[in-house]
Amino acid sequence: MNVIVITGASSGIGREFALQMDPFFTNIDEFWLVARSEDKLEETAELLGHRSRVIPMDITDSRRLDALEDMLIEHNAVVRMLINCAGFGLMGDFSEQPAENALSMIRLNCEALTEMTHRMIPYMRRNSRILQLASSAAFLPQPYFAVYAATKSYVLSFSRALNEELKPMGITVTSVCPGPVDTPFFDIAEQSGTTLKIKKYVMAYPEQVVAEALRDSYWKRTMSVCSLPIKSFHLLSRAVPHDLIFRAMGFMKMKGL
User: Fold this and answer.
1) CA nearest 217: which of 176, 182, 183, 159?
2) Taking a C-beta distance cutoff of 8 angstroms, is the pair 213, 176 a contact?
3) Strand partners, 30
4) Structural element, H or E, at residue 3
5) Cβ contacts of residue 36 below 8 Å, gap of 6+?
6) Beta bridge partners of 7
7) Quick count: other Cβ atoms within 10 Å of Cβ 66?
8) Distance between CA 111 and CA 60 in Å, rounded?
9) Can you give the pTM of this predicted structure?
10) Does the CA dihedral 186-189-194-195 come out positive or negative?
11) HSE on the CB side for 168, CA within 13 Å?
């Protein structure tokens, strides 16, 4: 049985991946939708023409990942695509936030993604794909978004290296690095701080991010960066010393930009 596994499938970009792939991936038997909210997963599943397996779970719990792996064995499943979208971020001054906030981001954005990926690879075959949701925040350190940006830098570095390791197996890993996206992400992220207002002006929509990510994965690209402003930011982060960018960001924050 050929399956697509999507984490964070209850909303936002994860849900959009399921919706966009559903009409076209005719060689897939089931979509396996993973997130903590069963009700929201059911809502996503109802929108799909494919058979969908709703798997409500916390992917930071290794025991639940054991159960997921048991399901793959039971159904003799081949993972044709793994799409890791589960994650969250919190803004604000690192020293003023509870340590648990930072550790929770690391557990979900880094540890759980790593464990999920490690567990799924043995069930993949040649031409299977992995898409890892990183962020443009991975391109350089982000004051007042320090831990989130660091976790996404990990995802980007890990995914690019893994892509090289998996080439002999014919498996492609694509890091998806959008800028701000119009999803419920900021409802959580801004509970403890606010982002630069200028980021709201370059907000993308999930439909754009996912469509470009799927194209880039098809062409076996290691990175997917959506929209001209974010592509320009990526080039800027490589060409300009980060200290200068920090000064510019500090000036914009002071001016309320």
Assistant:
1) 176
2) yes
3) 3, 51
4) strand 2-7
5) 10, 56, 57, 58
6) 34, 84
7) 11
8) 7
9) 0.91
10) negative
11) 1
